[in-house]
## 1
Amino acid sequence: MTTPSKKILVFCDGTGLDGLIASDILCDQGASKATNVLRLSRAVKPFRTDSTGRKIPQITFYQSGVGSDSDFNGQGFTTAKLIQAYGRVVASKIRDAYTFIAQNYESGDEIYLFGYSRGAYTARKVAGLIDRIGLLSRRDLGQFFDICSRLQKDPNSVARPTTEIPVKCVGVWDTVGSVTVPKTLGGIVTTPVPKEVLDSLGLTDCSLPNCVKMARHAVAFHENRDVMRVTLWDAPTVDGDNRVKQVWFGGGHSDIGGGGEFRELADITLFWMATEIDSLIELDHSMLWGSHIIPPKGWRGGWGAAQPYNGNAEDMATRVFGSTTREAQITGRIATRLHASLRQSPQPSNPRNMLTVKTIKGTVPKYVELTAGTLEHDLMTKWNSSGQAFHPESPQSVFTRLPATFLGGALDVVGGVVRVSADIVGGVTSALGRLWG
C-alpha cells in the first residue's frame, strides 16, 4: 500500500452551528452544544505515524454551518435565521470546502469528508463534484461557479476528468435532503416554505460517487418531522463489503449529530464513526473520552437507553409542517442495518408519531453488532458497568436556571420531564432555522 503524502480532512457542520465561537470546552463533559462533527474534527491529531515511523500530516478544515456567520465578537448576523431556513449559501459552503481541497491537494494525498445535517449534504456534494469534474488547478479555481452553472443547466456540457481522484472516506450524520430556495416576488419572500431543488449540479442526491472508497452514514431512526427528510445513499449495505455502511441509530436528528442539550445518544454515533475511521486517521482518544457523558447516579437503563427526541411532538414550530416516520426507508429496497444499541431503546415517553422496532411492518432489518476492543465497544462497556443510569435533567435543576433561560425559551412538559426548548417563542422566522437542518 502506498503511503499518502498527507491526509486532507474537511468537516462540514450543520445549520446554524459554529464550533469556532462555541464556549464549550471539548475535553469537558460540559460540551453539550458541540456537534459530533466538531468533536471529531478536534480529535484529529496533526500527524499520523505510519509503520516505518514516518509522520504523515493530517490537514483539518472545519466549516461552520449554513447561517452561522458571525462578527468578531461572535455575534450572529440578524439575517442568519433566514439564511439557515432557505439554504441560499449552501453553494458557497460547497465552494469553500471544494476549494480548500483543491488548493492543498497533491497527487497521492488522501481526502476525507465529514458532515452533519445540511453539512452532510455539503460533504456529499463536494465528493460528487470531485467525481464529476475532478479537482481544478489553483489557476482555474476562479471558474468554479461558471462550471457549476453549466452543470446545473446542462450536465453534458462539462467534460468528465480523465483521471479519477479518489475520496478515501465520506462519513456523515443524518443527511438532510436537498437545496432549498425561497419563493419570491420582486425580491420579496412570499412564503416561509421554500421551493425544493433536487439533484442540484446535475448530481443525483442519492447516488454514491464512484470515487468514494468508503462511505459511512449514521441515520436517525426516531426522526419524525416531515421537514427533516433524510437522503440515503442508494448504494446497498452488503454483508462482507466494507465500502458502504448505512446504519440506523436510536434518536431524532439532533440525537444523531449532536449539538443539543442531551447527547447520550449522540455519543454512540460519534464513537461508532470514530471506530470506523480509527485505523485510517490518528485520533486523540482522550479528546473523545473527555467529552463523553458519564452516567450519573440513578440510571436503571444503561447504554442506548436514553429517551429519543420526538421532534414532531416537542418542537411546536414544526408541527404545522406535519409528521412522517422513516419506516418506508428503513424497510425499503436499500439493505438496512440497525445499530445494536437500538435493542436498548426504551418505549418513547411521548409515543405520538414515533416509530419503534416493534412497530416496524414487514421485514425487520439486521442488527450491526459491536466488535470487542473498539472505541464504541469500550463506550458500551463503560456505560453498562457503571451500575448507574441517566436522567436527562431533574426538574429541580431546570428551575435553578429558569431565570436565565425563560425569556429565550418555553417550558415544554414531555413525559413528566420538564425540558427547555429554545427558540420556540420568537415567531416562525426565528424557528425556521431549525427546520431545514
## 2
Amino acid sequence: MQAEGISKVAAPVAGLQEVNLRPMQVAYNLHLVSLNVLSMFETDAPKGRKQRVPQAGMLVAGKKDVLREQFSRAQIWAAGLQETRLPASGVLPDRDFYILNTAATVQVEAPRLSITILVARCPRYLGEGQEAREFWDSRAQEVCNRPEQSELIAMIDSNSHVGSVHTEAVGGLDPEEENEAGALFHTFLLRTGLMAPSTFPEYHTGQSWTWVSARGDDARYRLDFVCIPQSWADFNISSRVWTEFEALQARDDHYPVWAQAVFGRAAPVQGFTDSFNRLGLPHWTVDVDSHRDQVYHRILRDKLMASFATVRADLQAGQMPGIGVESISLMVRSFQVWVWAELHDHLTAAAHIAEATNFKRDEKIDRFVEEHSLSEAARCRLVELRVRRKAEQDEDLQKLAQHLCICADRSFTAISLVKKVVQGRIDDFPDMTRAVAIAERFQLDEASLRKLRDIVEKRAEDLAVVLAHLEEVLAAAYSPSATLVKVAPTLLSGELLAPEEIEVLKLEARQQARKEELKRKAQKKQKKEKKEKKAKKKKSSSGSESSDSSGSSSSSSSKKKRKQKEKKAKKAKKKDKKSKKDKKSK
C-alpha cells in the first residue's frame, strides 16, 4: 500500500469564540482600621459624682453615629473595635455598615477573594504570662481552621512592645524593646503568616505610637496593629495613625491605626499557572519525547473528558453512528496541533521571562554585598534591581551605599529601598549628598544621622525644600544632634516647623549659650581660686621651712659658742693651776 503524505490540519473553528480577558479583572482597595474604643474604662468616679456604668463603651449616646460617620467619610472597608462593652453578641442595626458584635472571627466571601477577619485584645502579661500565652495559642489554632484559600487580616490591641527584633512580620520603624508580651505577639504573627505594616518604614508614615498614658508621665507606646498577610508585601500598602479621629473619650487614650491595601487579581494568568503546575514535573530519567507525550495525555484527558463524556460508551463499543475511526482520529490530531501551538506560545513566553530575569552572579553586586555585610535576601533584591535598571546600576549602588553607611540595619534598609524603587513607589534612590554635607557641617552623632536618613527617604518628593528647612532649624539650635532627633517626627509626618517654633529654638539656643558662658566663667573663677589657694599654701609651707632652718642654725651656733667658752675656761683653769704650781715651787 502506498504511503500517503501528511497534510497540515488547521485547528477546529466550529463554535470557536475569541475572548479577550483584561489582565486585571478585579481591583481591591481595602481600608482597614483597628481601634480600642474604651480602653482602661473604670467604674469608679470622682468623689461627689455618680458611679459610671460598667457596660458603657459603644453604648455611650451618639458614639456609634460619630464613629460610623468618620468611617463612612474615610471609606473604611472594615473596622475592628476592641472593648466595645456591648452586652450581647449579634448584628447591630445600621444603615451603612454591618456591625457584628461577636467573640469569634468573621468570614468574608467574594467571587475572587476570601478573607478571615480577626479582632482581638490580648490580656496584660502578668506574672509568668500564662493567660497571655494561652490567649495567643488559642487565636492561632482558631485561624488555622479557616477555609483553605482564605486570607487572614487581624486587628489587634496587643498590649505589648515590638520592634527591636526584625523579621518578615515586624520591621524596624521606631522600634520599642520587645518584652515578653511582645515575643508572644511576634510569634503569633510568624505562625499565622501575618505582618504589621506600621512597623515598616516603607509602609508607615507619621507617628507610630497609638496609646498615651493618662497619668501625666507622657508615656507613649505602639500597642494597636492592623496585620495583613506577608504575601501582600509587594502590594501597594500604606499605614498611618489616625490622629484626628474623634472617639468621644474624656481623655486621650488609644488612637486608631489605619492601613490601606490596593491590589488586583489577574485570573487568566493565575489560571494558566495553576494548570501548568498541575502537569507536574517529570523524573530526570524521562526523555523529552516521553515528557511531551505525558503532557499531551494529561492536557487531552482534561480537555476532551467533558466533550466526550456523553459518547464514551459508544466510542468504546465502536457504535458511534455516522462517524468512523478516521474522523475521530482527525479530531484528536487537530486538537493536538492546537494544544501544541498554545503550549509553544506559553513556553516561548516563559523562556523570555527567564532570560529577562537572569539571576547570574554579578561581581559588582557580590563586592557591594561583602563590603556592606548584607544578607542573602538583600543580594537577591539587588539582582532584581540590576535586571530592571541595568543602565542605572552603578548610580543606584552609589546612592544606596550612602544610605547604608548611616543606618542601623543595613540589610533591612537595602531591601526596603530597592523594593520601593522596583515597585515604582519612588522614581530613584533619594540622593544623600546634601544630607551628608549637613551632617558634616553640624557634626551630627549616630542617632541623629539615622533620623536624617529616614527623613531623606520619607521626604524624597520634596527633599530639597525639607533639607533647606532642616538646615535652617539646625543653624538656629544650640545642640543640632538633639534638635534633629526632637523634630524628626514632625518632618517624617510630612510637615515643617512653623516660624514661631524656629524662633523658640533660637531663644533656647541663646539662653543655653548664656548658661554655658556663665558656667565657663564660674569654672574659670573656681580654677583661679584653687590655683591661688594652692600657691598660698605652698608659700606658707616654704616660710615655715625657712624658719625651721634658721632656728636650727642659731641653735647650732650657740652650741659652738658654748663649747668655745668651755674650752677657754679649761685653758684658763689649766693656766691658773700651772701658775699656782710655779709659785709654790718658788
## 3
Amino acid sequence: MSRRPRWWAIGRILVLALILHGVFLGYPFVRLGQWLGLEGPVWLLLAALIFFSQLICRWPLRQVAHPAARFLKQILELFLALSPLVLVLVVSAEVGLYFELATPQRLAV
C-alpha cells in the first residue's frame, strides 16, 4: 500500500482553509452587498479586496516598519476581526428572511 505524498495533505488543508475563509469572510460581505444593491466592477473590486485582505496583510505586509503600511495592515485585519460578528448577524438575518419576518431592503438599512 503506497502512502500519499506530503503535498497531498498540505493541499487538503489549504482547500479546507480556503472554504472556511470564504464562509467566514466572503459570504457575509457578499450578502450585504446584494441586500444593499451594490453591483458592477466597484463591488467586485471591493469584494475581492475583502476576500484577499488576509493574504495581503499576512504575506507582503508581514514585517513592515513604515507607519502607513502598518495602518494599512491594521485596516485589512479589521475585516478578519469583524467577520465572526458579521457572519452571525447575516445568518440571523437570513433566518428572518426565510421566515418572512423582514425584507432585504429593511435588513440593509
